[in-house]
Give the backbone structure.
Amino acid sequence: MDSSGDDALNIATVLVESSSRTPYKRAVVHPRGRDGAGRTLYEQLTFRQLNELSDAYAWGLAGQGAKPGCRALLMVRPGLDFIALTFALFKTGASPVLIDPGMGWGRFTRCVAEVSPDLFLGVPRAHLLRWLYPRRFAAVRRFITLGRHRLPGTPRLSDLAVPAQGPFPVHRAAADHEAAVLFTTGSTGPAKGVVYTHGVFLAQLELIREHYGASPDQIDLPCFPLFALFSIGLGMTAVIPDMDPTRPATVDPERIVDPILDQGASFSFGSPTLWRRVSRYCVDNGVRLPCLKTVLMAGAPVPEELHRIMLRRVLGAGGEVHTPYGATEALPVASFTGREMLAETAETARAGGGICVGRPLPGFTVRVIRILDSAVPDWDDSLVLPQGEVGEFVVRGPTVTRRYLNRPEATRLAKVHDGEDIWHRMGDVGRIDGSGRLWYFGRKSHRVETPRGTLFTIPVETLINRHPRVYRSALVGVGRDGLGPQVPVVVIEPNHGAFPDGRTARREFEIELRALARESTITADIEEFYFMRSFPVDIRHNAKIRREEIAQWVRRRRRFRRPGDSRRG
């Protein structure tokens, strides 16, 4: 695995360089409670301290077997140790493995078994899993705990740290060597481990630096743990918010607003669901965030109204909202701004024309190919659709990953070989307009094939969401799966306090929805509407609607429905 050529690199070198360039600048800041007056207290590490701590951890982990080719599962809360530990593993050449715990312990531990990690590093409560699911942790050779508490036969990371040995010799890896395994959320299928290389990580840093103006003079509030690593890599100060990263939809807005204002955060990344809560809090309490200049929202389409509120009532003068487009397998691919959206594309989106996600970033090529559910082993120009037609997005570029870990069939379905290059099939459908902008229509697997043609989720839901009592909607298809056309059904999550309790209220709401649907040829044939109090959503951003679960819910209710009945959640 060792590489001694001129192209040898390691993502950990960005921390070493920042430590040398700005040793006394704050690298990581983290809340640690409140004082007697209710003010938030913070702990911090400078770049020099963070680099030295990661060196100490690297020496200790190397003594436990961390080395190139080794994988280490992390179950660590966001904070100082998470960042120091991750960079320590990079330095040894070992690959951190990050799996979303919010997917449920059964699914989580199945992912663990799939990875077969050599090391397991977690807080004491996380170690319960290895006793509950021993067979799925059978490959682990070393268990290490973080924190003050000791576990029988399990060393603590703090006891392993060896600060006296000085700088750790960073493993020299090539650009195509594995750096980490990051799992998808599994929101549209089984969670899959995406193999990230050092080259992909460094390409992502360069894109974020160039396109979003991320620089060492920025202070970042990353509301997704992985983004804190990018903050450090870009030389920014990372202020880690006190929140559960698996539940952005229930975040306490004060725990986002306070550190922004306390620390002067100018940059932030988070789910649109999180920013919806924060923006509502700011509007209700007359709070503005003048220091915050750049906000990135990703994970799901960003509603027009959220752009408008953020730009006009939350951010200060010159602030901007960006919506990067991509996936765990390729991120970012394209990007758009809130100001462009409001000025140039909002009207088309409201009419059911899809959601614009911007133009491809430098170095990326995006094409639209015919919608196919089968594998496409090799690139063929005949697959490409004419401009403006709706098909599946495929992308080629510097952040496109090449494979899933231990899932050859998933790799075969998602990747298209083109000589030495790889195209990634995004699994998203949409079109490219005359100016080269991408318009997102939804997930390929969520399309509904009806007797009159294909319906896509985003155009349909955008039209239905115009109803003043609708918070959000979900198009699903019901019928005999794979055996012919389906019946399109729209499920409604009403606004808070607007749920139609009682048969008469439901019937009146349905009449209004059908009338709204008939205003567009896209939705004119939709006759069935159901109501749910709260949609199931993805575990990472709490923003992607889990339509497969909603479709199953609808099928159960249709099976036992009586006229005028069972159309409620």
The first strand starts at residue 26 and ends at 34. The chain has 16 helices and 26 strands. The first helix runs from residue 13 to 21. The CA atoms of residues 387 and 434 lie 7 Å apart.
